[in-house]
Specification:
With 81 residues, the chain is mainly α. 62% of the residues lie in helices and 6% in strands. Strands 1-2 form a two-stranded antiparallel ribbon. Helix 1 packs antiparallel against helix 3. The mean pLDDT is 83.
Length: 81
């Protein structure tokens, strides 16, 4: 007499979700920028050259990071695993 076995449950692997790293990196960067703006205004107002200060450089760096991670997220969003 043959025994019937219950079918094995197959779990699909969890896909890589770049959205988590996108949110984490940009959220931490925004939080650091916000804390610096609130608690170290003198530091953020330090002039580097001409009318440019550290706060302006920091927001440009944050914007560049946002664009870079958005492009990276967009490239990985269409990949099927």
């Amino acid at each position: 007499m043959s025994r019937q076995h219950a079918p094995r449950l197959h779990h699909r692997p969890h896909p890589y979700r770049p959205g988590r790293s996108f949110a984490l990196v940009n959220g931490v960067t925004f939080g650091v920028h916000l804390l610096l703006a609130l608690f170290a205004p003198e530091f953020m107002a330090t002039r580097t050259w001409g009318e440019t200060n550290i706060g302006m450089l920091a927001i440009l760096a944050q914007g560049s990071l946002l664009l870079w991670t958005a492009v990276r997220y967009d490239r990985h969003a269409d990949v099927e695993y």
